[in-house]
Amino acid sequence: MIDCGSDWLHQLNSLAPTAIVLTHAHPDHAGGLAAGAQCPVHATIETWAALGRFPVEAKRTIPPGNPLLIDHLTFKAFPVEHSLLAPAVGLRICAEGSCIFYAPDVAEILDRRGALSGVDLYIGDGATVRRSMVRRRNGALIGHASIAAQLGWCKDAAVRQAIFTHCGSQIVRDKSQEMETLVRRLGREHGVAARIAYDGLQLSIGRKPSAGTLSV
Prior knowledge:
Blueprint: H1 12-15, E1 20-21, H2 27-30, E2 41-43, H3 45-50, E3 59-61, E4 68-70, E5 73-81, E6 88-95, E7 98-102, E8 108-109, H4 112-116, E9 121-125, E10 133-137, E11 140-144, H5 147-157, E12 161-165, H6 169-173, H7 176-189, E13 193-196, E14 202-204, E15 213-215
Parallel strand pairs: 1-2, 2-3, 7-9, 9-12, 12-13
Antiparallel strand pairs: 4-5, 5-6, 5-8, 6-7, 10-11, 14-15
């Protein structure tokens, strides 16, 4: 399980994940662990510092810059700009020759080339479609890059598929079909097959017939 927001509080036992990996410490990404977890939880040193009082027994630290093997998946964390109080990472996740990059809250990927090189699928920040929600504070970028900007990153890195999750009010409140059509059109303009995620979405990822399935 990647991220565990407050809506998962007291529901982890029924879900029974084998491991949880966190991108950052904001409540909508980590608040579900406020009552603890029965599986190992992996996070950066900065995230654990922000979640110090959470009663998680099996705390694991994500090694900065180095791959981390969890079950059959290899994770590598890449720092992203999003928040000064809750430093975030995007996750490059690989198995059986296929890779995805997951960045649900992102203003900028610091090592974009290293993060996105050879990636089959980008899963990104759906807070805003075209309007930038990025601003600068204390010399760093904070907030949320637009879907249009992230599709530009995908185009530059030759990533051909993108899904946008953690959606903002523009997508949630407006007519969903209109937003889906807009995101798909923006994707085509960048040479990327783009769409909006939804609960229960399952995707087959990779170049091999044996490639795994991703559930959203």
